[in-house]
Amino acid sequence: MSNNFEDLQKQVAELTARVWRLEQAAQANAAPQPRNIPAPPPEAVVATPRPAAKVQARSLETRIGSQLFNRIGIIALLIGMAWFLKFAIDNQWIGPAARVLIGMIAGVGIIAWSERFRSQGYRAFSYSLKALGTGILYLSLWAAYAVFHLVPGTVALLAMVLVTASNAILCWMQNSEVLAFYAAIGGFITPLLLSNGQNHALELFSYLLLLDIAAIIMIALRPWARLLLAAFIGTSFYAIAWYISYYSDRQFALAAFFLVAFFLLFAIAPQLLRNLRLATQTRHLTVQDNVVLIVLPLLNAALAFFEFYALLSEPGRTHARPWIALPLAAFYLIMLRISRLHQLSGTPMALPAVYLAISVIFFTAAIPLELNGLYIAIGWLLEGAALIWMARQQNHRELRFLAVSVLALAFVGVNVIHLGGGQPVLFNGRFATYLVAIVVFAFSAWIALHSPQEWKPIAIGAGIAASVLAMIAVCLEIHSFWVVQTAVHRGDLYIYEQFTYSAWAMVFGAALLGVGFWKKSAFLRWQALALLTLSIAKVFLVDTRQLSQGYRILSFLGLGILLLAVSFAYQRDWLSLRANKP
């Protein structure tokens, strides 16, 4: 093995000497040099390497000795100190003040000790030690206030704020998001540690507001997404817990003021984080950034809506609840406008899309809050038509998706929200709502048909929805008509009702087929064929058993004549469908 290594070393030395001679020759062509240039000795050119196994052995040995044993030693030392303190406390060697002082010294010492590891490149381990030291400081201050009553609450609060501020300064100086996250956790734990079970709303929310402003300032300096999310979660926790435990109608103004302040802070913060990220040279948003930019605006908007709704649930304020959604929708339209103004070319549009979605959601929610009955479905239909038109004008994919969602909601609403009986057949609000729905879906299908190829599924869905709505609308009126006739004549008119359904299905199918031939639309013709197939199934499976002999004969005669006419039209190919395949 050693002989092979020496041979390889000699070959490398010879190659190096040859390259050196060629370089000297090239320089000699540019400027005359002496011709007899001695070759450098191989020993001067190539340093003799040592086997790599020894280097690797030393590296593994270093890692075991300097890292593994070091960390085990830290853990052992902490365990030993904890047992010593417990033993000393159990034997009354150390009083309350000494215990707190030892905790403070230990916390500061661990934080200072962590800097040694950071300077040696062990950043993660250093941050873990800082978190441990910070936790010891918080617990020591909490014990001094809540357990031993050595200091008043104000002093403990100021001391905890000082610890949080020190961590914030460290994380800014060391550019560490992990430390910022630890500092945020410590800051939000402070009110919980100092809680005495009393209602101090002004002090609590003022402290949280200052803490959130500090987090926003830190976001302006360092684009740390986790810090922003931690601040929102901590603030939301205290707001909800305070409302459940202490809120009364007398505190409405205070709660509303801080609710608006917190809402505005966390509505602006994602935009600030996004602009700061995109202002860098890379103009790159990480996966974590995108998650925060999507989740935080949605959570903030939802929390603001439900909190305002809860605040306005007290007697005397319920009249304002239906109007909560509209200001929020208008606000997010403004945020959408601002976000698009600051949009850089070639950057993702996640945040503007989220603002758009939130605004549409609030507009959609405002309709059932402010209207009732069939007007809810009409409102959704008109909103869906407006959105589909705007999506086509702006060629906006997200807006197109939102428009389809609202139209789907409107379709369900039309078929669920019905007025009671006792109204004239055809001349009633329910039938008028169905007519509006048919017009809206036909308009949407027309818009989609005159749009690019990606709109084709919308055209198909809207066209089918319009036909289904027409079929259901007339069937409901048929049912209402025969219910009235049954009440008047006091007889069982079920047979007549079933025959009318069959007749309507055949007439509507024939009408769709005729329009399909006239407009040369395969889409309409396929709908007609599907409807005729259902008519065939009803005649053979239902009418043969439930209708009387006379109506059974009429059903089969009508269906047979219609099917023969359709078959004859297709066989003769009057519209040259075989040549023109639309």
From TrEMBL:
Any matching Pfam family: DUF2339
InterPro entries: DUF2339_TM
This protein's UniProt keywords: Membrane, Transmembrane, Transmembrane helix
Keyword Nuclease annotated: no
Transmembrane regions listed in the UniProt entry: 68-87, 93-113, 125-148, 154-172, 179-198, 204-221, 228-246, 252-270, 291-310, 322-338, 350-367, 373-392, 399-419, 431-449, 458-479, 499-518, 553-570
UniProt key word Membrane: yes
Protein name per the record: DUF2339 domain-containing protein
